[in-house]
Write a structure and sequence with these properties.
The structure is a single chain. The chain is α+β, with helices and mostly antiparallel strands. It has a single domain, classed as 3-Layer(aba) Sandwich (Aminopeptidase). Helices cover 28% and strands 35% of the residues. The chain contains five helices and seven strands. Strands 1-2-3-4-5-7-6 form a seven-stranded mixed β-sheet, sandwiched between helices. The longest helix has 16 residues. The chain is globular.
Length: 184
């Protein structure tokens, strides 16, 4: 059996003209259970403020816009960079995995991070599986720390904090577990 072909994915810096798209993807009902949406002005700040990297995800043969990602802590003096947000339109096509690999390469290469971390809602099983398979390690849980509304019912969900250290990333590179990155 042949290995699946990785999708063509690239990241390009978000422009202010992309923010209507960003807000629409964030407010898509398929994404809302897994994120806490931002106001447009918060995205504008992330595009402009140097501690953030805000990217449009482009995928497919024509590199159509398919989502966005945000890194935070890009100037953190402790070398701790956060994957603040990854929101995609289409699921199950390998775009998320390709993005995570490119973001790891950026965090540990370009940004010289010591630690690359994220938090993810416990109800987001797909993302949890992806991050674990990409080498992120669970550090802890913030029990019932975020409000959620599912099926018309208000409640709380737990955030799971996960990270990868630079030496763990280097070990994965040595084992051939990381792919190259394409960042526009």
């Amino acid at each position: 059996m042949l290995a699946p072909v990785a999708p063509r994915v690239r990241l390009r810096p978000t422009m202010l003209s992309d923010l209507d798209f960003v807000v629409s993807v964030e407010h898509d009902p398929r994404n809302l259970p897994f994120i806490t949406p931002w106001e447009r002005t918060q995205h504008e700040g992330a595009v402009r403020f140097p501690d953030f990297r805000h990217f449009i995800v482009e995928s497919g043969g024509a590199y159509e816009r398919s989502g966005f990602v945000i890194l935070q802590g890009c100037r953190n003096p402790h070398g701790s960079v956060e994957l603040k947000r990854i929101v995609l339109q289409d699921k199950g096509r390998g775009v998320g995995r390709a993005c995570v690999r490119q973001l790891k390469a950026m965090a540990f290469g370009d940004l010289r991070a010591h630690r690359f971390w994220l938090d993810v809602k416990s109800l987001n099983a797909r993302a949890l599986g992806l991050y674990a398979s990409e080498g992120f390690v669970e550090e802890g849980r913030l029990r019932e720390s975020v409000r959620v509304r599912l099926g018309g019912v208000d409640g709380y969900d737990t955030l799971i904090v996960m990270s990868m250290l630079d030496r763990e990333y280097q070990a994965r590179l040595g084992l051939g577990c990381e792919a190259g990155a394409e960042i526009a």
